[in-house]
Write a structure and sequence with these properties.
Layout lengths: L2 E9 L19 E8 L4 E6 L3 H15 L7 H12 L6 H16 L2
Antiparallel strand pairs: 1-2, 2-3
Helix pairs in contact: 1-3, 2-3
Length: about 110
């Protein structure tokens, strides 16, 4: 079972107060859903605590490493991403959002 697509769905319209001094506006995007599709039609859902634009950028950057990877080996895929993205801001946003994509498809949701 291989990863063939990852869609990004930014969540807006109800951002909760995160405790920051100035709070957050409802339209701010602080959480993002990821929808992972496999070649067998299985769809997995997951999320990350960052904006949709940042997540989409990370997926675009790391897509060559994610495409056709096993959806049932999240640890291996995550380690490949970690090793391959280390010099891109020491992992940074790409590292925080894309392993979630690999892990969620394993859940079989």
């Amino acid at each position: 079972m291989k990863i063939v697509a990852i869609a990004v769905c930014p969540l807006t319209g109800g951002t909760v107060d995160g405790g920051w001094p100035r709070g957050h506006e409802p339209q701010e995007n602080l959480h993002t859903l990821l929808i992972v599709t496999t070649d067998e039609g299985l769809v997995g859902l997951g999320g990350c605590f960052t904006s949709g634009k940042l997540t989409a950028g990370a997926i675009e950057l790391l897509w060559p490493l994610l495409r056709h990877q096993s959806a049932v080996e999240p640890e291996r895929v995550s380690e490949t991403l970690r090793q391959s993205s280390f010099w891109q801001g020491r992992g940074g946003a790409g590292r925080s959002s894309t392993p979630s994509a690999a892990s969620i498809s394993h859940s079989g949701t």
